[in-house]
């Protein structure tokens, strides 16, 4: 049996330079895709999910070499696509097709549907006009349209119908891989499932492998065999679809699942929502890139914090890194007993510190007394105007292992891969007794 996957992507990177000035001096890089590995077997559908801007589309365009990857290897049927010359790239593009979110923009309004669908055939050397027309008419029927549609024009079709035509055009050259980038998200919800069903049928009929890109986990659950979860240019978890939905191993996956409406409230993930903005891919956080938003970010061994409070302390610490806090606003919002010259109530220092805790959802007293003492010292420094001292105190005491150690994508006890130090911890606990 042939164990080689149809597509194997290893260490894929796509960095966009950030330039300044007339001479376009490089001053930084957007690390849109930053070392991504995955495989897709023949006939399999792999979902690629993640929030907007995490690099999903860039994975697609780089692996198909619609834009050149910065680094990495893309093996298709055993061959490295990144080394292909023009001729071989053309052959590869016939075997690996892509469909996009917006079907309207992918058609020339002056060309009939038949001409558009037949175009790739012409490019690939099928010169007999009636043969082309025959193939196209057959395909139109297979994607749920009518053979007579062949002479109609794009504007005569609805969005859903256009996406059917786009599928016909992708299939016309008999590809082995279809890369579908948000293929239904521009369509009316009522017709999304028709198109998804069609894609499922087509995939079986044509034995297609599919890379299915979507930010919509509900859609991914309907069509994918496995799912890879991306965050800030990296894959953080890869799992069989149902396993991922019922037992996510990475806190980011759990958060993503928590942020979709679900009919069954008993499922894990319901109470967790994603908060905070995605950091910039030009300056990703050190260690685990999700640590700045992770609800399960690991506390240092020296303190026994309740997890929610620890997350809140991390939020304060991150905010402090951006500059001094707006004490006046907090002072006014939390003022009760101390009056200013105009008689308005403003907070005294103690009240202000409690106000700051409240703003960051930090309890009035942390469960760990030593930890609370450090926090109190930092808050005192901040309200006394020594922002640097406050920031440094928090930075020194409350560093998380998640920012110090880069988590590799490794097999978890659940049997699939996730990149999270929580699993490293578990592994070490399991491995240690065996070492004794
Ligand atoms: N040509 C470009 N030049 C500079 N930065 C780019 C370019 N294309 C994409 N990016 C950046 O790369 C990152 C990844 O973008 P990408 O479109 O791949 O994400 P995505 O996950 O597909 O998002 P969406 O779901 O919104 O399409 C983003 O920060 C984006 O701004």
Automatic annotation (TrEMBL):
Keywords: ATP-binding, Nucleotide-binding, Transport. The lineage of its organism: Archaea, Methanobacteriati, Methanobacteriota, Stenosarchaea group, Halobacteria. This is ABC transporter ATP-binding protein. GO terms for molecular function: ATP binding. InterPro entries: AAA+_ATPase, ABC_transp_ATP-bind, ABC_transporter-like_ATP-bd, ABC_transporter-like_CS, Oligopep_ABC_C, P-loop_NTPase. Belongs to the ABC transporter superfamily. Residues 7-257 form the ABC transporter domain. One of its GO terms (biological process) is transmembrane transport. SMART domains: AAA.
